[in-house]
Design a protein that fits this description.
- The protein is mainly beta and 132 residues long.
- The strands form two sheets. The chain has a seven-stranded mixed β-sheet, covered by helices on one side.
- A hairpin with a 2-residue loop joins strand 1 and strand 2.
């Protein structure tokens, strides 16, 4: 029981940190976060698995540590995806004009971009791909 209480406290601390960082947390579960990043703000995932949505566009979404991240950028697009992790970083950009930068050992994939998207590997050993 004590172990569960510790994990719940850790999940709540993560939710509080996301709220302070401009992310509106919709749902948290043990080790996983599903959240909405507000237009023009930055949201980061450093532990567990994260699913972030930026429906208004213009967000900076960062994935670090041992995380696996799934990002989506809608609206006007123009999101920046920073993948400096050892897990996988998958992003979609329905609004176009997004950029993914991969610097970790994990793999990054940017897809569903109608135009103006880039995926660049900067010193990372994983793959960084633009797939349409």
């Amino acid at each position: 029981m004590r172990r569960i209480a510790f994990r719940i406290a850790a999940a709540l601390a993560t939710a509080a940190a996301l709220a302070a960082a401009g992310c509106e947390t919709e749902t948290t579960t043990l080790g996983n976060v599903i959240a909405e990043c507000l237009t023009g703000t930055s949201c980061a995932c450093g532990t567990g698995n994260c699913v972030y949505d930026c429906p208004g566009g213009g967000c900076v979404l960062t994935c670090t540590g041992a995380s696996n991240c799934v990002f989506s950028c809608g609206g006007v697009g123009h999101c920046s995806f920073e993948c400096d992790n050892v897990g996988n970083c998958n992003a979609t950009c329905a609004g176009g004009g997004c950029a993914m930068t991969c610097t970790g050992t994990g793999n990054g994939v940017l897809s569903s971009c109608p135009s103006g998207c880039t995926a660049t590997s900067v010193g990372g050993t994983g793959s960084c791909l633009l797939v349409n």
